[in-house]
Specification:
Radius of gyration: 19 Å
Strand content: 5-15%
Strand order of the largest sheet: 1-2-3-4
Number of domains: 1
Oligomer: single chain
Order of helices and strands: EEEEHHHHHHH
Bound molecules: zinc ion
Structural class: alpha+beta
Largest sheet: 4 strands, antiparallel
Distance between the termini: 69 Å
Number of helices: 7
């Protein structure tokens, strides 16, 4: 298989390596730390694309993860600071940790694909005009937005009012 390893440098200075040669497994290395992950998003959004376009958009998407990392950290930090971590006991705390992780992933996927869209520009539209995948786009943008919004809200929502009233008395 051809070696598609490319060295990249983010706008904020962090360097990394990206290999999207394997459609089933992407390798992103950030400062020598390998962050391998199955490109589930690419399987949904890039379904039916010819290899060259598939590779081009997959590369931009993975680079997008590196480029939008600060945004993902900002969102995670916001949830950490403003999340209602201490209300309603340990079970709710655990559910909020999981919701926070899901929201973080969803935000990061959305921002990486938004980066891909912005960077590929007219090329992005041309590729999907020639190889339409409306269901994949609906599933990705719709599903990820719903996950990002509702999982974030779950972390941020106040504890239940009955407990609050009880503690006031
Ligand atoms: Zn991704």
């Amino acid at each position: 298989m051809a070696n598609n390893l490319r060295k990249v440098r983010s706008w904020y200075g962090l360097t990394g390596e990206i290999d999207v040669g394997n459609h089933l497994w992407h390798l992103v290395k950030v400062s020598r730390v390998p962050l391998s992950h199955p490109p589930l998003v690419n399987l949904v959004l890039r379904k039916g694309l010819p290899p060259e376009e598939h590779l081009q958009l997959s590369f931009l998407h993975e680079f997008g993860h590196l480029q939008t990392f600060p945004l993902a950290i900002l969102h995670a930090g916001f949830l950490m600071v403003f999340g209602r971590w201490r209300s309603n006991g340990f079970g709710t705390f655990l559910r909020r940790i999981i919701a926070g992780a899901i929201a973080h992933e969803a935000i990061w996927e959305l921002s990486s694909e938004a980066y891909t869209l912005a960077n590929a520009g007219p090329e992005y539209r041309r590729i999907y005009r020639e190889h339409p995948n409306p269901f994949g786009h609906f599933l990705f943008w719709g599903g990820m937005t719903i996950l990002a919004v509702f999982a974030s809200l779950y972390v941020l929502k106040p504890g239940n009012s009955i407990q609050k009233k009880a503690s006031v008395r």
